[in-house]
């Protein structure tokens, strides 16, 4: 057991970006999930130039991690390079790789836990929830210089959790059923005891005290046990946004990363007042609204004591980030997200439309895999 009271925060260059994507491995026979991750990695010939390819909790998942980068264009090059590697290698093994926050029709009891001490620990602690956790998310890391900045930014970003949910939602189907949610994936995450909003700790020292308490009580062994929507990641020197569904395309993943970087820059630059305790009163409700209704959600504003349509809030927010986007070189990515908000057609809307048109979820998954295989338009020299 590590001594969290002595845990130090590794300073990073401000606003450095990193992206993790959890991806589906599906059979080309019927496009159901397939148990292929360990064998796939064993035969993978890849030099890590774009980042890492790793196991996730079940054998039907694979995770890719970009390298730390300064801007969204470099992230696009990494993610597209990782996509190329996986799509090619999967094709040789008669499988496909796919985005999306949930697989539309797999049966969770058929999943197999991946080998490894960490995965065995999770399976032992959480039981059947471990296999039900075969859901797929995008995590975004943002570099900060200190632990105190990490705690402040964690609190500041928490109020924008529903915005990221609506923009990234890509999980309307579970167990061959339209759940009525745009992001049903988040219901699986919410089952874990340390999920949700981070506690209202004032600074890094207070966070370490909080972690020491959890450890002493046996609630958590490490920061990895915190399934918070936004959490500090001290070994990387980052704040990690963990709320997004895995998008259907690399382009959308890059746009979400650009949005996170612009928002973090704006918040750290302007240092607006934050109210973690007040935000906590409505956090679960606001996340539910975005998960359930996507761009049709209505958010509770506890400061002004009013209700706000999320579409209005997103347009206003994206417009306020224009100068930051120009300075960071990602204006195009933010404009694409603004157009997405206006259209009210996130990835969940696309999935529902294709399901209606094809009449079956096998073809839906096939088309989603084909969509993920498309090269990114943001990759340099494309």
Question: How would you characterize this protein structure?
Answer:
- With 382 residues, the protein is an alpha+beta fold.
- It has one domain: Creatine Kinase, Chain A, domain 2 (2-Layer Sandwich).
- It is 46% helix and 16% strand.
- It contains 15 helices and 13 strands.
- Strands 1, 2, 3, 4, 5, 10 and 11 form a 7-stranded antiparallel beta sheet that branches. A two-stranded antiparallel ribbon has the order 6-7.
- α8 links the parallel β8 and β9.
- α2 runs antiparallel to α9 and α14 packs across α15.
- The radius of gyration is 20 Å and the shape is globular.
- 48% of the residues are buried.
- The mean pLDDT is 96.
List the helices and strands and how they pair.
Blueprint: E1 17-27, H1 37-42, E2 51-55, E3 61-66, H2 72-92, E4 95-98, H3 117-126, H4 128-132, E5 137-143, H5 147-158, H6 161-168, E6 173-174, E7 177-178, H7 185-190, E8 195-196, H8 204-216, E9 227-228, E10 230-233, E11 238-245, H9 250-270, H10 276-293, E12 298-301, E13 306-309, H11 310-320, H12 322-328, H13 331-343, H14 347-358, H15 361-372
Parallel strand pairs: 8-9
Antiparallel strand pairs: 1-3, 1-4, 1-5, 2-3, 5-11, 6-7, 10-11, 12-13
State the distance separating the first and last CA atoms: 47 Å
**pLDDT below 50 for ≥5 consecutive residues: which ranges?**
none
Rg, please? Answer: 20 Å
Please state the second-level CATH architecture.
2-Layer Sandwich
Compute the average pLDDT: 96
Q: From the helix content, strand content and strand pairing, which structural class follows?
A: alpha+beta
Stated plainly, the CATH topology is called Creatine Kinase, Chain A, domain 2
Strand content: 15-25%
SSE string: EHEEHEHHEHHEEHEHEEEHHEEHHHHH
Shape: globular
CATH class: Alpha Beta
For the secondary structure, the number of strands is 13
What proportion of the residues is helical, as a percent range? 40-55%
Major β-sheet profile: 7 strands, antiparallel
Number of domains: 1
How many DSSP H or I helices?
15
